[in-house]
Amino acid sequence: MKDDDAWDWGLGRWETYFGLVLVSTIMYVLNDHPTGTGLVATGILLVTVPWYVLFGRRFLGRDTSARGAYAYVGGLIVLCGAAALTAPESSLVLFAACPQCFMLVRWRESVAALVLLNAVPAVRFFRGGADAGTVVSFLVWTVVVIGFSAFFGLWIERIIAQSTERRELIAQLETTRAELAEVSREAGVMAERERMAGEIHDTLAQGFTSILMLLQAADAYVGRDPEEARRQLGLAARTARENLAEARALVAAQPPAPLGGSSLDEAVARLTGRMREELGVTADYTLTGEPRRLTAGAEVVLLRVAQEGLANVRRHAKADLVEVRLAYAPESVRLEIRDDGVGFGPDAARGFGLHGMRERVGQVGGAFDVRSEPGAGTTVTVEVPA
């Protein structure tokens, strides 16, 4: 119901009123003129029904400047006038005809139509030889009726205008809502695509890179040190299993595999230990403060930053010393990854990995900082609210 136009909703009520007035008028006419002129007037009045249903109904409450509406009102004036000329009692139908004019054409034209509809009954009255008092009474009553009808018609015209504006506004709002829904859907798809790209970069891509490096190292030791080659292959197999677990976690939308059922500090300690095993470098892990559970978002961000930071050390730093510090403070948790490697300049700080870390940290309201100079190593610092 709320989606229907006001005129469509009230059309049945108006037509019921019109029908009651028409039936009452015909009964009144036939009561005074059961034959002859009464039957002719009744026939003329009945013609107004198909005239309305087939022609006038489509314009009711719609565009008041439509030519068809004016043609319908003109035909209505002719039919009502002809019926009134045949039987004066037919004028009763004006109670239904007059409101239609204001629903179909503009206010000024409706007032003119109202005068024309009442012209025939007025002429018959004045030709009837009424006394002065009756004439004055008739004129006063006519002025009152026309004045009230004009006021009522102006109100109807305002309702039509507001209904039209409302219909247009609703159409615009529905269009805008559909456009916003499409934009929101596209934004959601893009955000999810970016999220998945970051997850794949920080997990699967890093894992494959690590596996490739371990396999290359194992190949170098195959002939001269089989034990070391087997150790490198074992590390590659373990990394592959962990990568598979990460892939399954991504598909199932579960927490990162390195966390599993363990705490964040344990997961960061394992990542640091793996760095030590894979590269044979000094990798120290330091924990300060009292470890505690954080929000899922904060733990995932810190874990991913640790993975990405250590992966960058593995691929680019050529470091001999890596230091990882995780500090729990009352209102925040701070992660710092420092190496003594080759470092990099400002241009290299705009890579996808660092950008992804900065985006992740920003999503949980944290602070991200990278400090590096060529030949002076790199320090990555992240602090997130606890």
TrEMBL record:
Its cofactor is [4Fe-4S] cluster. Its EC number is 2.7.13.3. Keywords: 4Fe-4S, Cytoplasm, Iron, Iron-sulfur, Kinase, Membrane, Metal-binding, Transferase, Transmembrane, Transmembrane helix, Two-component regulatory system. Residues 302-386 form the Histidine kinase domain. Pfam families: HATPase_c, HisKA_3. This is Oxygen sensor histidine kinase NreB. It is an enzyme of class 2 (transferase). The chain crosses the membrane at residues 12-30, 36-56, 68-87, 138-156. GO terms for molecular function: kinase activity. It comes from the Bacteria. Member of the two-component regulatory system NreB/NreC involved in the control of dissimilatory nitrate/nitrite reduction in response to oxygen. NreB functions as a direct oxygen sensor histidine kinase which is autophosphorylated, in the absence of oxygen, probably at the conserved histidine residue, and transfers its phosphate group probably to a conserved aspartate residue of NreC. NreB/NreC activates the expression of the nitrate (narGHJI) and nitrite (nir) reductase operons, as well as the putative nitrate transporter gene narT. InterPro entries: HATPase_C_sf, HATPase_dom, His_kinase_dom, Sensor_HK_TwoCompSys, Sig_transdc_His_kin-like_C, Sig_transdc_His_kin_sub3_dim/P, Sig_transdc_His_kinase_ChrS. It catalyses: ATP + protein L-histidine = ADP + protein N-phospho-L-histidine. It is found in: Cytoplasm. SMART domains: HATPase_c (SM00387).
